[in-house]
């Protein structure tokens, strides 16, 4: 698949790059995508929720009324969950929501996500960015040139560039990450995936294993 390379002003450079069909043009596996996104979202959960149960709240342990003869249900403790102020029955407890997926499935999910974006023409390839300083206006000018000001965008770098990363950090709709940090969720969550030229080799080598 041939894709034109743009400069930081959004103009074509006259060059084209070849995106590997084994990464950007496979038969998407929707179930693999579902599992990888599910794992990503599960890993974001802190799992610190907790409700007090009857053994953990303050209250008398006295039997509140006699067992028989009242015409109502028997009751042994004011801390029972059926009474106001009682403990929560079967309440949430701290737990770990994460689960494991094998590497091949995660690789397939990422390739499927990139294929989906490529089929929607939502992948843009640009020259490498290199700012002299970390200023938000530098990154904003790039977004404006690519017509991405009001869209969710994901910029993928080939190597760590602090000036580019820090310039984008204040912009809510844009995210910058390394090719090794690419995830199915982030690919699908973006309206446009912007690949820097230097990131292509790493993406293809990571996902072609």
UniProtKB/TrEMBL annotation:
A Pfam family of this chain: Ribosomal_L4
Keyword line: Ribonucleoprotein, Ribosomal protein, RNA-binding, rRNA-binding
GO molecular function: rRNA binding; structural constituent of ribosome
InterPro entries: Ribosomal_uL4, Ribosomal_uL4-like, Ribosomal_uL4_dom_sf
UniProt keyword Ribonucleoprotein present: yes
Keyword Ribosomal protein among UniProt keywords: yes
UniProt region (Disordered), positions on chain: 46-75
Gene Ontology BP term (one): translation
This protein's GO CC annotations: ribonucleoprotein complex; ribosome
Taxonomy, superkingdom: Bacteria
Role this protein plays: Forms part of the polypeptide exit tunnel. One of the primary rRNA binding proteins, this protein initially binds near the 5'-end of the 23S rRNA. It is important during the early stages of 50S assembly. It makes multiple contacts with different domains of the 23S rRNA in the assembled 50S subunit and ribosome.
Family recorded in the similarity comment: Belongs to the universal ribosomal protein uL4 family.
Known partners and oligomeric status: Part of the 50S ribosomal subunit.
NCBIfam families from the UniProt entry: rplD_bact
Protein name: Large ribosomal subunit protein uL4
Species per Swiss-Prot/TrEMBL record: Formosa agariphila (strain DSM 15362 / KCTC 12365 / LMG 23005 / KMM 3901 / M-2Alg 35-1)
């Amino acid at each position: 698949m041939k894709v034109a390379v743009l400069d930081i002003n959004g103009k074509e450079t006259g060059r084209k790059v070849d995106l590997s069909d084994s990464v950007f043009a496979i038969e998407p596996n929707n179930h693999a995508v579902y599992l990888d996104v599910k794992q990503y979202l599960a890993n974001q959960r802190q799992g610190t929720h907790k409700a007090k149960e009857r053994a953990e709240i303050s209250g008398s342990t006295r039997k509140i009324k006699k067992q028989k003869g009242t015409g109502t249900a028997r009751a042994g403790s004011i801390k029972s969950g059926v009474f106001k102020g009682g403990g929560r029955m079967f309440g949430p407890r701290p737990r770990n929501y994460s689960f494991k997926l094998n590497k091949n499935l995660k690789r397939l999910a990422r390739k499927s996500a990139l294929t989906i974006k490529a089929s929607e023409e939502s992948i843009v390839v640009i020259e490498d960015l290199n700012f002299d300083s970390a200023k938000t206006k530098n990154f904003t000018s790039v977004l404006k040139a690519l017509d991405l000001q009001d869209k969710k965008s994901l910029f993928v770098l080939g190597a760590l560039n602090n000036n580019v990363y820090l310039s984008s950090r204040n912009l809510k709709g844009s995210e910058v990450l390394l090719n090794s940090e690419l995830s199915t969720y982030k690919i699908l969550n973006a309206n446009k995936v912007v690949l820097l030229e230097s990131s292509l080799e790493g993406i293809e080598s990571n996902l072609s294993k």
